Amino acid sequence: MTRRAPTGTRRDARAPEQGELPLGSDPGSELTVYTDGACSGNPGPGGWAAVLVRQGRYEELGGREEQTTNNRMEMRAAAEGLRRAAAGDRVHVVTDSRYLHDGICRWIHGWKRKGWRKADGNEVLNRDLWEDLDVLVRRPGLAVTWEHVRGHAGHALNERCDAIATAYARGREPELRCGDGSWIPGLATDRAPVVEGAGEGAEGFPLYLSLVEGALATHATWAECEARVKGARGAHWKKARSPAEVRATRAQWGVVDA
After folding, report:
1. Most-buried pick from 99, 104, 125, 128 (CB within 10 A)?
2. Which of 71, 88, 178 is nearest to 133 (CA)?
3. Domain spanning 10-179: which superfamily?
4. Around 152, how many Cα atoms within 13 Å sit in the side-chain half-sphere?
C-alpha cells in the first residue's frame, strides 16, 4: 500500500521552478542551502524555509501546508532549495534534522534496494518526498553534500530559517528577502575593507580559512590550515585571494561573531 502525502492547502512564497537561479548568480558556482521546518501540533499546520547563499548573495524561500508533520517540512525545505540548483553547481545543504541528514546520506540506499521498505519490513514514511529528494540530488552535473548542525545553537542562518518556518506554521506571512544578508540577525561580515581590484598578491593574500566545530581560523600557509582540518569531522577550508573572498566565505559558512 502506497502512503499518500498528508492532504491540505499548500501556500508557498516564491517557490521556484527547477533550475531557477538566485538573483545575480551564474550556474556552475557554489550554492549553500540552509533549511528548516516547523509544525504546530505535529501533525498540524506546518512551515518550511530555506536560505540560499551564492556569491555573497542571500535569498529566502518559504511556504506552509495546512496538515503536515515536522519531518515533512524539513524535507520540503531541502527539496525546494535543491530545485534552485543548476547543472554544474556544487551544492552544500545544511540542516538541523537528523532524520533528513541520515535518511538522505545513509538510509535511502537500503530503502531503495528493499522496495522502499525499512529493515523491519514496514513501508518507509514520507516516500513521496524521499523519492523527490533522490531525483534532485542525482541530477546530472550536480554535486551535493550535506551537513548536520545543532538547532537553536546560535547559527545565524539556521536561526533565520527557524524563524521563517515557525511563522508560516503559526499562520503568519513573514517577509522573504533577497540581498546582502544585512537583515539577518547575527550574520557576520568581514571587517576588513574590500579594496577595489585587490586579489592575488595583495598584502596578506592569498591566505587560508578553516572552520572546525563552528570556530573560524585564518592561516598564512596551507600546511597550517591542513594541520587544523585534517581528521576533523565536518571541517571546512578554503583559499582566499582577497578580502572580498574572505567576506564571501565567512558569509557562506554562516560565521557569527562571538
Report:
1. 104
2. 71
3. Ribonuclease H-like superfamily/Ribonuclease H (3.30.420.10)
4. 3
Strand duo 57-68 + 90-95: pairing:
unpaired
Report d(CA 36, CA 39) in Å as an integer.
11
**pTM metric for this prediction:** 0.69
Catalytic residue among 60, 80, 162, 245: 162
Active site residue 36: yes
DSSP, res 92:
E
Amino acid 29: pLDDT: 79
Are 59 and 178 a contacting pair, CB within 8 Å? yes
How many angstroms separate the Cα of 217 from the Cα of each of 51, 58, 168, 220, 254?
Answer: 24, 23, 36, 10, 14
**Packing angle of the helix pair 70-82, 127-137 (nearest 10 deg):** 20
CA dihedral 130, 14, 184, 85 (to 10 degrees): 50
Question: Is 132 an active-site residue?
Answer: no
pLDDT at res. 145:
93
Q: Contact 168/62 with Cβ under 8 angstroms?
A: yes
Q: Is 89 a catalytic residue?
A: no
Non-local (6+) Cβ contacts of 78 within 8 A are 33, 35, 50, 93, 95, 100, 104, 133
Verify whether residue 37 is a known catalytic residue. yes
In the chain, CATH 3.30.420.10 sits at 10-179
Mark whether 96 is an active-site residue.
Answer: yes
**CA–CA–CA angle 253, 173, 6 (5° rounding):** 90
| Cα–Cα distance measured from residue 68 to residue 178, given in angstroms and rounded to the nearest whole number | 27
